[in-house]
């Protein structure tokens, strides 16, 4: 495939990567390596393998039909749309709050800003809203390609440099993962919840695929759309492993713990890179980290209104008939998401780790239901036969659903019964 055509195809898959490579990577993967060394690397790989089909189904459906997964849910019944709406509302405020508070910590640390984290988060969200007002998908499509390249290059350099210094944990500070300790299990659940991303992101990607068609006038073939998705997916897995490796090589066995406070954590995160690459790289790494988290805020704040608008119109058809010079439904939902996130931050901003663990645990618990909905859509009779997944992919998907369901049931029983 020609380079120019490949660049033209890339878009929704990289936006998926932009949404995924945020808290799950910068925070959770780094915490996994710093706390347990390489003990959870196989869990990271397994989680990505199990969830793969359900993300792939989003790209598959949108490319084959020109519609989003929400339209697919509506095809199999309004109950499916209602279920997804409930799951979205239950998680969107905590997710938007989590990615914002991490970004706030990075910005405060790098620019030495000492204002209240909630006020700084509010400023960041307002700036994000302005960016979305300027260009919506077109801005996202161009920005994300630059952000991902900068982050990937700096991360690879940092990991290679860290390997050059070797792995020398101090025995007295080295801790192995325990399958019987509550703290370790709670972290594992949160770690899996957003590895590589919440399954909701499959719906976002389907909406971005539709937007790419409308805004850029480009209709990729199914094979091309899946290539875009696979590049984004494999890239997120690789970067997650890199962050876990950085945490293990630089922090594990040193006695230093990652702080639950956003500003201090940001300083520790950047020092992971500078201690490996050198102090000269401080501003490069700082810019890469901030732009990565900003892209995550941007993709989340773009995605939730995109998700809620069609669901609002499905349940309230009159809303679609209202004539207006601007997209009032999207902006109404942007304001709702920002307000809800800030209210949540007002109560919980003192502990970044708690915010992150809350959001990721909710994503873990809802994963089996979303996985089932995505499978149901791509195997439904309304989808063209040639676009439906092959037998091996169906078996693969059912295996994943069983695993996700079993993990969730065990977790809920363990948490509320024992």
CATH topology: Amino acid/polyamine transporter I
- Give me the Rg, rounded: 21 Å
CATH homologous superfamily designation: Amino acid/polyamine transporter I
CATH architecture descriptor name = Up-down Bundle
Name of the CATH class: Mainly Alpha
Put simply, the count of helices is 17
Number of beta strands: 0
How much β-strand is present in the residues?
under 5%
Helix-strand topology string: HHHHHHHHHHHHHHHHH
What is the domain total for the residues? 1
| Secondary structure category | mainly alpha
How would a textbook summarize the main sheet? none
Helical residue percent?
Answer: over 70%
| Net shape | globular
Mean pLDDT: 80
- N-to-C span: 55 Å
Q: Enumerate the spans where pLDDT stays under 50 for 5 or more consecutive residues.
A: none
Word description of this protein:
With 418 residues, this protein is mostly helical. It has one domain: Up-down Bundle (Amino acid/polyamine transporter I), CATH 1.20.1740. It has helices spanning 3-9, 12-20, 23-36, 41-65, 69-76, 78-110, 117-135, 137-165, 182-193, 201-216, 222-251, 262-277, 282-315, 317-321, 328-348, 352-378, 391-416. Helix 4 crosses helix 10. The longest helix has 34 residues, at 282-315. It is globular and about 60 Å long.
